[in-house]
Amino acid sequence: MSSQTRSGRASFGAKLSDVDIEAIRRFVMNADTFDLLDRVTVLRHEMELEALKLMESELDHRGIEPAMIQDYRAERASEVVFRSDGSIPRCCECDRVAVRKKWGWHRMYGKVPVFPMVKYFCDEHAPDRDQPAE
Ligand SMILES: [Zn+2]
Q: Domain check: are 58 and 29 in the same one?
Protein backbone atom coordinates (compact mmCIF):
# COMPACT_ATOMS: atom_id res chain seq x y z
CA MET A 1 0.00 0.00 0.00
CA SER A 2 1.50 3.33 -0.98
CA SER A 3 1.87 6.09 1.56
CA GLN A 4 -0.45 8.32 -0.44
CA THR A 5 -3.40 5.94 -0.25
CA ARG A 6 -2.93 5.40 3.49
CA SER A 7 -3.85 8.98 4.29
CA GLY A 8 -6.69 10.63 2.44
CA ARG A 9 -5.96 14.02 3.97
CA ALA A 10 -2.33 14.00 2.90
CA SER A 11 -3.45 13.66 -0.71
CA PHE A 12 -4.94 17.18 -0.59
CA GLY A 13 -1.45 18.56 -0.49
CA ALA A 14 -1.66 20.10 2.97
CA LYS A 15 1.48 19.45 4.92
CA LEU A 16 1.60 19.39 8.67
CA SER A 17 3.75 22.07 10.25
CA ASP A 18 6.38 21.28 12.84
CA VAL A 19 4.00 22.73 15.43
CA ASP A 20 1.24 20.35 14.32
CA ILE A 21 3.58 17.38 14.43
CA GLU A 22 4.79 18.34 17.91
CA ALA A 23 1.16 18.61 19.10
CA ILE A 24 0.41 15.18 17.63
CA ARG A 25 3.55 13.77 19.27
CA ARG A 26 2.42 15.06 22.68
CA PHE A 27 -1.10 13.66 22.13
CA VAL A 28 0.26 10.26 21.08
CA MET A 29 2.62 9.98 24.04
CA ASN A 30 -0.26 10.68 26.47
CA ALA A 31 -2.95 8.71 24.64
CA ASP A 32 -4.57 5.57 25.97
CA THR A 33 -3.21 2.46 24.21
CA PHE A 34 -6.70 1.38 23.07
CA ASP A 35 -7.32 4.85 21.61
CA LEU A 36 -4.10 4.55 19.61
CA LEU A 37 -5.07 1.05 18.49
CA ASP A 38 -8.45 2.36 17.25
CA ARG A 39 -6.72 5.15 15.36
CA VAL A 40 -4.21 2.88 13.55
CA THR A 41 -6.89 0.30 12.69
CA VAL A 42 -10.58 1.19 12.22
CA LEU A 43 -9.92 4.97 12.02
CA ARG A 44 -6.79 4.64 9.93
CA HIS A 45 -8.37 6.33 6.89
CA GLU A 46 -8.99 9.47 8.98
CA MET A 47 -5.40 9.83 10.18
CA GLU A 48 -2.58 11.85 8.67
CA LEU A 49 0.36 9.77 7.50
CA GLU A 50 2.74 11.52 9.91
CA ALA A 51 0.33 10.88 12.79
CA LEU A 52 0.05 7.20 11.85
CA LYS A 53 3.83 6.86 11.91
CA LEU A 54 4.01 8.43 15.37
CA MET A 55 1.18 6.22 16.68
CA GLU A 56 2.68 3.03 15.29
CA SER A 57 6.05 3.96 16.72
CA GLU A 58 4.48 4.64 20.13
CA LEU A 59 2.58 1.33 20.05
CA ASP A 60 5.84 -0.45 19.21
CA HIS A 61 7.50 1.39 22.11
CA ARG A 62 4.69 0.10 24.39
CA GLY A 63 5.37 -3.47 23.27
CA ILE A 64 2.36 -3.84 20.96
CA GLU A 65 3.48 -6.10 18.13
CA PRO A 66 2.12 -5.91 14.54
CA ALA A 67 0.33 -9.25 14.97
CA MET A 68 -1.50 -7.88 18.01
CA ILE A 69 -2.57 -4.84 15.97
CA GLN A 70 -3.89 -7.15 13.24
CA ASP A 71 -5.89 -9.12 15.82
CA TYR A 72 -7.26 -5.91 17.30
CA ARG A 73 -8.25 -4.66 13.84
CA ALA A 74 -10.22 -7.87 13.14
CA GLU A 75 -11.94 -7.72 16.52
CA ARG A 76 -12.87 -4.03 16.30
CA ALA A 77 -14.10 -4.32 12.70
CA SER A 78 -16.88 -6.57 13.96
CA GLU A 79 -17.72 -4.33 16.96
CA VAL A 80 -17.86 -0.78 15.60
CA VAL A 81 -21.05 0.70 14.18
CA PHE A 82 -21.13 2.46 10.85
CA ARG A 83 -23.25 5.30 9.54
CA SER A 84 -25.06 4.76 6.24
CA ASP A 85 -22.25 6.64 4.47
CA GLY A 86 -19.70 4.16 5.82
CA SER A 87 -18.13 6.53 8.32
CA ILE A 88 -17.51 5.46 11.90
CA PRO A 89 -19.19 7.72 14.48
CA ARG A 90 -17.61 8.73 17.77
CA CYS A 91 -19.21 8.32 21.16
CA CYS A 92 -21.47 11.23 22.16
CA GLU A 93 -19.88 11.24 25.63
CA CYS A 94 -16.21 11.03 24.62
CA ASP A 95 -14.11 10.74 21.47
CA ARG A 96 -13.81 6.94 21.33
CA VAL A 97 -15.11 4.82 18.46
CA ALA A 98 -18.81 4.04 18.84
CA VAL A 99 -19.86 0.42 19.28
CA ARG A 100 -23.53 1.01 20.11
CA LYS A 101 -26.26 3.21 18.73
CA LYS A 102 -29.56 4.04 20.32
CA TRP A 103 -32.41 6.41 19.62
CA GLY A 104 -32.56 9.26 22.05
CA TRP A 105 -33.58 12.90 22.24
CA HIS A 106 -31.62 15.96 21.27
CA ARG A 107 -32.20 18.13 24.32
CA MET A 108 -32.07 21.92 24.31
CA TYR A 109 -29.86 23.10 27.16
CA GLY A 110 -29.38 19.42 27.94
CA LYS A 111 -32.92 19.18 29.36
CA VAL A 112 -35.81 20.00 26.99
CA PRO A 113 -36.38 17.22 24.38
CA VAL A 114 -36.51 18.81 20.90
CA PHE A 115 -36.27 16.00 18.34
CA PRO A 116 -35.35 12.30 18.27
CA MET A 117 -31.91 11.37 17.02
CA VAL A 118 -29.55 8.42 16.90
CA LYS A 119 -26.89 8.64 19.58
CA TYR A 120 -23.65 6.71 19.46
CA PHE A 121 -21.74 5.28 22.41
CA CYS A 122 -18.37 3.66 23.07
CA ASP A 123 -17.92 0.51 25.19
CA GLU A 124 -17.66 2.52 28.36
CA HIS A 125 -20.62 4.86 27.85
CA ALA A 126 -23.10 2.45 26.25
CA PRO A 127 -26.36 2.77 28.24
CA ASP A 128 -27.37 -0.82 27.51
CA ARG A 129 -24.07 -2.63 27.41
CA ASP A 130 -25.68 -6.08 27.31
CA GLN A 131 -27.80 -5.45 24.21
CA PRO A 132 -26.40 -5.63 20.67
CA ALA A 133 -26.32 -2.56 18.40
CA GLU A 134 -29.63 -1.91 16.63
ZN1 LIG B 1 -17.60 7.18 25.29
A: yes
Where is the domain boundary, 34, 60, 77?
77
| Tens of pLDDT, residues 3-21 | 444 444 444 556 778 888 9
On whether both 53 and 94 belong to a single domain, the answer is no
Whole-prediction pTM: 0.74
d(CA 88, CA 71): 19
Distance (angstroms) between ligand 1 centre and the Cα of 36 equals 15
Report helix, strand or coil for 114.
strand
The alpha carbon of 125 and the centre of ligand 1 are apart by a number of angstroms equal to: 5
**Domain with 120 in it:** 80-134
